[in-house]
Request: fold
Amino acid sequence: TFNYSVSHDLRAPLIAIEGFSRILIEKQGHHLDAKGRHFLTMINKNTKKLNELIIDLLDFFGLGRKSIKAVTIDMEKMINDIISDFKSMFPEDAFRVAFNALPTAQGDRKMVRQIFINLIGNAIKYSKPKGTAVIEIGGWVEKEKNVYFVKDHGIGFPMEQADKIFEVFE
Reply:
């Protein structure tokens, strides 16, 4: 029921927005100035991303019935792609990100990507009242396991709630 509701009730209007924005770009884009075409293109691009996110969430909630597809993940490329996506959604001075070489990971690409989208997005969102968010991303190999972190100067959360916050990813 949940999957049907999300799939139908959320995706149907999203698909319409994507389709109409694409048609506007194709048929009326020449009437807009560069800024207008850019905004319309961003609406179209982010609508597609939201649709992909809904699909990923449906996959995530269906994991009990599906096996995890473990692959080698180029973490540096994944983080750069995520940062690029966020830069297109936020003002230029909203955040700065620093990271050095990251070890490659073994895992389900969609799930790992979603974790980092959440962590980086929260770092931007909850650091913003303090000005430009400064985010540090790092990782290393320790005892044959990869360790990654996302550090920011945001409001944080009580450590006694850490288990509850990350429980969904177990």
